[in-house]
Design a protein that fits this description.
The protein folds into 2 domains: 2-117, Rossmann fold; 122-224, Arc Repressor Mutant, subunit A. The chain has helices at 10-22, 33-42, 59-69, 84-92, 105-117, 121-125, 156-167, 175-182, 193-205, and strands spanning 2-6, 26-30, 47-51, 75-79, 97-100, 130-133, 136-139, 144-147, 150-152, 214-217, 221-224. It is an alpha/beta fold.
Length: 228
């Protein structure tokens, strides 16, 4: 499998390359986001590892651009920033997992392996032109979401979350299932990130529209349904 690492620190990128190649992966290194964007369009990569602190264009902006082109391509962010706000910014940009430097390579191998095993459900979604439920319509080719004809501005992670809900409409979804498919198998379900993003999504698809579509079943999970 092919992994693109975007890291401007030569020592860190060398360690990552050597370590990941020892696990059997084919590694390409880019020192800046602009080079990484050119690479990801040229080559069919299986995973991106992105440092947030990059020259000129940040890893956050790189992730947003990559996800706008390839919504199903998993991204693992590496950063020295470990605060909750920074992590939420990473997830907003489309990151599927997040590791704070310094980290143990053994943990990195596990997280990479889990991301590569994750079902890339959104690839099959891209074969269809539209996803619809009730008033929600997703133009998959343009990655445009509308509600009653009104265009909704979603972040990449909100887009992934809504797409997953629509693909499993009227089905009760546990937090673990949402984490596994929209984030990664290694996602810490003990955090409140899922609730935070579901609230973000509610504000955009339910606040000014009726009926409400995303419902919380206390102690059980969440469901996309047009029935109260």
């Amino acid at each position: 499998m092919k992994i693109l690492v975007t890291e401007d620190n030569e020592r860190v990128s060398s360690i990552l390359k050597k370590g990941l190649e020892s696990q059997g992966y084919r590694i390409t290194i880019c020192a800046d986001a602009e080079s990484a964007l050119k690479e990801v369009v040229k080559v069919d990569y299986d995973l991106l590892i992105v440092d947030i602190m990059l020259p000129r264009m940040s890893g956050i902006e790189l992730s947003k651009r990559v996800k706008s082109l390839f919504v199903g391509l998993p991204i693992l962010m590496l950063t020295a920033l470990g605060q909750i706000d920074e992590k939420l910014s990473g997830f907003d940009a489309g990151a599927d997992d997040y590791m704070v430097k310094p980290f143990d390579l053994r943990e990195l191998y596990v997280r990479v392996g889990l991301l590569l095993k994750r079902p890339r459900e959104f690839e099959s979604m891209e074969a269809a032109d539209f996803l619809t439920y009730d008033r929600i319509r997703i133009d998959v080719r343009r990655k445009e979401v509308t509600s009653e004809g009104v265009v909704l501005r979603l972040t990449p992670k909100e887009y992934d979350l809504l797409s997953f809900f629509i693909r499993h409409k009227e089905t009760l979804l546990q937090r673990e299932e949402i984490a596994r498919n929209v984030w990664s198998k290694n996602f810490d379900t003990g955090t409140n990130y899922i609730d935070v993003y579901i609230n973000y999504l509610r504000k955009k698809i339910d606040k000014d529209f009726s009926p409400k579509l995303i419902h919380t079943k206390s102690g059980h999970g969440f469901i996309l349904s047009n029935k109260e």
